[in-house]
Specification:
This protein has helices at residues 3-25, 31-41, 43-50. By secondary structure, the chain is mainly α. The protein has a domain at 27-58. It starts with a helix and ends in a 14-residue tail after the last helix.
């Protein structure tokens, strides 16, 4: 796995972990709601990836 893919996965992982832990902190343990939190949490990194101006790992990233 290259560094770019690892960075992308870490971004998704951090965001998802925080979202699911936030839902758990409210006392909610319903697996369906936790799954929803996980799925919704990937929207932020996905938007970043779709941004052609994001030079880190967006569509406009330098893939040298």
């Amino acid at each position: 796995m290259n560094k770019e893919i690892a960075a992308i996965l870490m971004s998704y992982g951090r965001t998802s972990l925080v979202a699911v832990l936030s839902v758990l902190a409210t006392g909610t343990t319903d697996p369906k709601l936790l799954a929803h939190a996980f799925l919704i949490s990937i929207i932020g990194p996905l938007i970043r990836w779709l941004n052609p101006n994001d030079k880190s790992f967006g569509i406009g990233a330098n893939n040298d």
